[in-house]
Amino acid sequence: MILRKVPAGFSPGGLGLTGGSAAPDTVLVRQRAMFAFLCFVWGTTWLAMKVGVASVPPGFFAGARYGVAGLVLLCWRGTRGQRISVPAWAWPRLLVVSVLMVALNQVTQLYGLRYVPAGLATVISSALTPVSLIGFSAMMGQERFTRRRLVALGVGAVGVVMLFGQKALAGRLGWPELAGAGGVMVGCLSYSMGSVLARPLMRTLAPGEVAALSNGIGGFLLLGASIAFEPGSGAALAGHWGWPAFLAWLYLLLPGSLGATLIYFFLVRDWGVGRTGSYAFISPVVGVILAMLLFGEKVDAGEIAGMGLMLGSAALVLRR
Prior knowledge:
The chain has 13 helices and no strands. The chain is mostly helical.
């Protein structure tokens, strides 16, 4: 089997996200703009997920979102004359990636969100995601676990605790909360491993192709399992979710799955999972700043210092 080597700025998905044959400087500017969009959108998704799963069974809520996203991406490719052509050897890995990044990740995180505050979920995700992405990538020989990255991860983790720790851990955590936190951790680890396994696929398949298929496969597997086993999924089929849950689902579908998730695959291919994963130190800061601007929330000096450390950590990881 001959693998097609994809140039860093080439966009075989036909979506024009990385600039085709544009000059390297132009490609880098576009990649950075894409990364900024990713950080902004994923800085707001925890609240949308929390709103959605309050009214809709988590498996059904996520399965419908990712299944529809996969179908939309496949239809988009079809309208542009782009066939889905997956080699036989790639299907088992693609199935594993779909289960890890969508089905297992979503059901564990969303059920976890039912029992833990969004702040605690943010702490876990922000601290664990970059570490696990770089750790799994180093274990599989894709990237090196350098001293600079180790320092960056340590600085970022301290910043996360300074920003969210006191509020997130205030009060007593009982067994439901601890189980919920465990679910968020499993979801983060699952997504990280799936990301690392997905990167080699993109030597042969376009990132848009991998995104469309993994979203569709993982989404419909999760949706089918929800309809078969999840309490409340039958009622959810009727669509009586209430407008807050529906708007949350729509937000997660459009800029979330059809925007940020697709961008994530492109950046994982071109930057690697380590640099791309630094979004987890930036997105929470975006969420806090938006809460300050929109809802008048206050932050103290320690929290401002925590945000600075998180942004500094991301800068260390992103620096070439």
